[in-house]
Amino acid sequence: MLGFYENFPSYVHRTExxxxxxxxxxxxxxxxxxxxxxxxxxxxxxEEVAKPTIPKCxxxxxxxxxxxxxxxxxxxxxxxxxxxxxxxxxLQLVDFLCIVKYYKDGGERKTPLKFDYYMIRIxxxxxxxxxxxxxxxxxxxxxxxxxxxLIVERVNKSFSRSVLKKA
Length: 167
Fold this sequence. Notes:
Blueprint: E1 14-19, H1 25-40, E2 43-45, H2 46-49, E3 57-67, E4 70-73, H3 76-88, E5 93-106, E6 109-112, E7 116-125, E8 128-137, H4 144-157, E9 165-166
Antiparallel strand pairs: 1-8, 1-9, 2-3, 3-4, 3-5, 5-6, 5-7, 7-8
Helix pairs in contact: 1-3, 1-4
């Protein structure tokens, strides 16, 4: 089932709620999918995402959307498939896998460090969005709230006015 991960943990490390009074759940879901697809292709400095715990480090994200017992990477094809599905029928909740990859800058070459694996569940209600983040494994160089902040910032940038405000 698209958007739902059967083994999402019942215990989460971070929950945040946002008011969504200016936008439909359909448009919000489409904006989230687009934002995650765009983030997938970018490289960030640690300072752009969180307080640095590793000096001279860059970060890359890989987001995938749940589909039953697994996740599909949000490449262009998958993004278009999901956007089309949401256009027809918005989802009640959407689960994502987020892999955070760290690279230590060492002059001409980058040294890969251990990755962090997070699961994110976004639940859509009447004028409310709830995010739940579970840290699956890794050293947790960035916190769950940093990932939520990155997503919310990107979604808000895609509209003329902020559509997500902390509840």
